DNA sequence: CTATAATCCTATCGGTTTACTAGGTTTTAA
DNA sequence: TTAAAACCTAGTAAACCGATAGGATTATAG
């Protein structure tokens, strides 16, 4: 299950990406339009800034803006930052690998084999979708 | 993330499927060989029995056995019973649908569109893999 | 008939995560 | 100088997870 944090983060990024101009967008505006608790959203925006997706401007007329082009932001990257691993099991995760303590040999593990396939299928979809694809309406 | 419950459940099913004969397999045997807490496994086996994957026999020489052929058990079915929805968001789940309360229109939701693709990719993999595929070594 | 081995059942529990909320501080533009 | 915005830290209620505890029930073997 995708956490609300990730879901809200993606929605916020898409909201900003849909704007033509590059003027900073306030968290309050996104919060109202996307029905997200403002304080919660603020913490998410902060994280997106710290991880290099957004820039920010403080004070009156400030807000958040995209640093890269929407077409250059893969959804794999967004999800990995907000949610963590894309794999369903740590032992098949490319970026967050962890050995299972119950499993003596990954190569003969039935779950392992299956989850590699699931991971690859998800990576395929999330890797070929960019923020631009996501943000476009309809 | 896949819960341990689901992971253990799949391992247990695969363990039983690998046996040539159809004699009941005890939870204690699976628990030892797959390094799973026995009491926890018992509750999982019970669930798998109640949901129609396993039959059971009580008393000495008892245990659990498969009701269908391994080749007829799709991993989608197993995961849906143990884990719940395969989709990452309830609003794209086929079997556990729920409307998002923040989302006025699913058709224009960027997350929705993306998650449908992820769901379909996962369904593809989990639907074409059966317990037989999973259980076969290497 | 009895001992034992197995499933079955209910309850509980400590730890972690989630989704916020509260209450501010700091910075900037008008 | 004021207001609006991001920034920061902490806390918190609820849910969920991964067990554990303690038995009740049933079946087999001797």
UniProtKB/TrEMBL annotation, chains A, B:
Record's keyword terms, sorted: DNA-binding
GO molecular-function terms, A-Z: DNA binding; DNA-binding transcription factor activity
SUPFAM superfamilies noted in UniProt: Winged helix' DNA-binding domain
InterPro entries hit by this protein: Tscrpt_reg_Rrf2, WH-like_DNA-bd_sf, WH_DNA-bd_sf
Gene Ontology, cellular component aspect: cytosol
UniProt keyword Cytoplasm, yes or no: no
Keyword RNA-binding attributed: no
Name of the protein in question: Rrf2 family transcriptional regulator
């Amino acid at each position: 299950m995708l956490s609300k944090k990730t879901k809200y983060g993606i929605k916020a990024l898409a909201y900003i990406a849909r704007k033509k101009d590059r003027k900073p967008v306030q968290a309050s505006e996104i919060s109202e339009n996307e029905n997200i608790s403002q304080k919660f959203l603020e913490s998410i925006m902060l994280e997106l800034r710290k991880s290099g997706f957004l820039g920010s401007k403080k004070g009156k007329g400030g807000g958040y803006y995209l640093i890269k082009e929407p077409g250059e932001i893969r959804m794999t990257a967004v999800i990995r930052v907000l949610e963590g691993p894309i794999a369903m099991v740590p032992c098949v995760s490319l970026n967050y690998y962890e050995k299972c303590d119950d499993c003596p040999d990954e190569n003969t593990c039935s779950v392992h084999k299956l989850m590699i396939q699931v991971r690859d299928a998800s990576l395929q979809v999330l890797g070929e979708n960019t923020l631009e694809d996501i943000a476009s309406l309809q």
